[in-house]
Amino acid sequence: MTLPRMASSHYGAFWQTCLPPAEWTEATDAPPLPEQFESFEDPPTWVFPQVLLKFGPAGPGRAQIRSADGERIIQLQPNRFIYNWQRRSGEYPSYEGVYRGFETYFSQFEEFVRGRNLGSILPNQWEINYVNRIDPGPLWETPADWHKVIPGLLSPPPSSLPFTSGGLSGEWHYDLPGKQGRVHIAIGQGATDAHGAKSSLVLRTTVRGPVGEAGIRDWQAGFEIGHRAAGSAFTALTSSEAQHEWERMP
Question: For residues 174 and 233, is the Cβ–Cβ distance under 8 A?
Answer without folding.
Answer: yes
